TrEMBL record:
<dbReference type="InterPro" id="IPR043424">
    <property type="entry name" value="BLT-like"/>
</dbReference>
<protein>
    <submittedName>
        <fullName>Uncharacterized protein</fullName>
    </submittedName>
</protein>
Length: 150
């Protein structure tokens, strides 16, 4: 009977030892998976940081270029409006003083060409402004806002 009791005790200890070893193995597997997952997370975070860093400078350059273009277009707008106003003043002076304002044909041709260019510029700018108000924000603006907010 004692022998049977010892045998039962050994069997129970064997099962307990096997269960403990199984739990240890599972814990070790979980630990390895966690380390792998954390390493992958660090790698992906580093790649995301590098990508974001690499895109910020081109976006800033595009914004700078856009601002410069807008300033130049505004300057050209003012210049074209000035030419148009100058032409109106000359036209009104011709009506007031028909003797004055009659320059050479070269000058009137040149002035007419300049006036035509300025009117074409203003017409094109008005069309562009109408087009931009009807379109949605560009992909660059979308990416910029996403990158700067994220």
């Amino acid at each position: 009977m004692e022998h049977l009791m010892r045998q039962l005790t050994k069997d129970k200890q064997g099962h307990a030892t096997a269960a403990i070893q199984s739990v240890r193995d599972e814990l070790e597997d979980e630990r390895k998976l966690r380390k792998w997952s954390e390493a992958l997370h660090r790698k992906l975070a580093q790649e995301l940081y590098e990508t974001k860093t690499n895109l910020v400078n081109p976006i800033k350059d595009l914004e700078k270029e856009w601002r410069s273009r807008v300033l130049l277009e505004d300057l050209c707008d003012e210049f074209a409006w000035g030419i148009k106003n100058y032409e109106h003043e000359l036209h009104s002076l011709k009506h007031v003083n028909p003797d004055k304002g009659n320059g050479s044909s070269y000058r009137s041709t040149r002035d007419g060409m300049i006036l035509h260019i300025s009117e074409s510029w203003l017409d094109e700018r008005m069309q562009m402004k109408q087009d931009t108000t009807s379109t949605k924000e560009s992909i660059v603006e979308k990416l910029s806002s996403e990158l700067l907010s994220g």
